[in-house]
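so my prof wants the structure for this chain in the C-alpha cells format not the other one, which i didnt know existed until like an hour ago. anyway here's the sequence
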Amino acid sequence: MATAYRIVIVSVPRGGKAESLAEGIVEARLAACVSILPGAVSIYRWKGRVRRDAESILVIKTSVPKLKALERWVLARHPYEVPEFVALPVSSGSKKYFSWLTEQVR
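here's what i got, hopefully its the right format
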C-alpha cells in the first residue's frame, strides 16, 4: 500500500546546478530533503545519437500534495530541454520520518 509520500528522481548536469536546485526546492518547502548523488554517468539517445554525460542525481523526498508544484518548479528552472522527473511511490517507512517530512513541507 502506497503512502502519501513520493521519492522523485531528477538528473542534472554535474556542477553547481544540483546544489542550487536542491536548495531552492527545500527553501520553497516543496520537499523536506534533497540528496545529491554525484558521479553518475548517463548514457542515452538524444536527437538520433547515443550520448554520454556526467551528471548528479537528485533524490527528492516530498509529499503527494506537493508533487505537481514541485514538478512545475523543477521544469521551470532545469537547464535541460527535456528534464527527467520521475516520481516513485513510497510503500512504507518510519512514522517519525514521515511526521518530520510532513512538517517540513507545510
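also thought this was worth mentioning. The beta strands are 5-13, 33-46, 49-63, 86-89.
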